[in-house]
Amino acid sequence: MSGKINTTRNTGFTLLELMVALAIMGVIALSMYSSIFIASRAKDTTDAALGPYNTIMPAFDMMRNDIIAAMSPGGLFAGYFTGTEESAGDDLYSSYVSFYTAGFRPSAGEKASNIIRVEYFLGDAFEYDDKYSLYDIQEESEQLVLIRRKTLNLLSTDSGLYEDEIVCRGLASFALEYYDGYSWVSSWDPEASDIPLPMAVRVSFVLNEDCLKTQQGRAAKEDMPVYTKTFVINTIAAEQEVRE
């Protein structure tokens, strides 16, 4: 019997094929890693850029709710709208404003009117912020926070019946400007103005250098951005519509 030649081919992979496959997988893995790394860096950059703005936004939102519902003087529950400003040097300011607003929303079960008196001003963090001792900040450095002081009981003769809350931390400047219908002014005296309330209020914040360095990695002396928003007082707009 003549012998048969086995022509069956081994279907396994050769070493060369395995090396090519591994090389292709390596290229794909490297491309995926590069894409993920670039996306991660982009996210970190975006978060760093938006960090200061996110710090300021709650303060803008709270002030907006109070300012747009500011009330004209008159009656038991509405007093004068007053605003002053002090210079802190280097184009930095410390403003103070006091007015009555109908924008307060009492919590469930709270016995309070929606009309309250609010004050906004800068305060020393070590005086107003109990948690500031937890921060890695030298005590001799001035750390400012934005304080919102609200008086709920407007009928009380006790001037000490108020509540203070911290609206924003890490500030270097808090500036307010008021529009009287002709120009922007840095203070508001109701007795010296022709109208009881400004038509609009412009709010500007500057974060301190420590906050900027922490959130953006900026050098201490680089430009400090100013975050500004303008709010129109609805009471004035409504009164103008009635006159027209």
Give the topology string: H per helix, E per strand.
HEEEHEEEEHEH
Query: How many strands, which pairing sense, and closed or not: the largest β-sheet?
Result: 8 strands, antiparallel
Count up the helices.
4
**What oligomeric state do these chains adopt?**
single chain
- Number of structurally distinct domains: 1
The overall pLDDT average reads 77
What's the total number of strands?
8
Can I get a quick summary?
The chain is α+β, with helices and mostly antiparallel strands.
Overview of the molecule:
It is a single chain. This protein has about 240 residues and is an alpha+beta fold. The protein has one domain (about 50-244). The chain has 4 helices and 8 strands, in the order αβββαββββαβα. Strands 1, 2, 3, 4, 5, 6, 7 and 8 form an 8-stranded antiparallel sheet that branches. β1 (about 80-90) and β2 (about 90-100) form a beta hairpin. α1 (about 15-65) runs antiparallel to α3 (about 210-215). The radius of gyration is 31 Å and the shape is elongated. It starts with 14 loop residues before the first helix and ends with a helix. Mean pLDDT is about 75; it is low at about 130-140, about 215-220 and about 235-244.
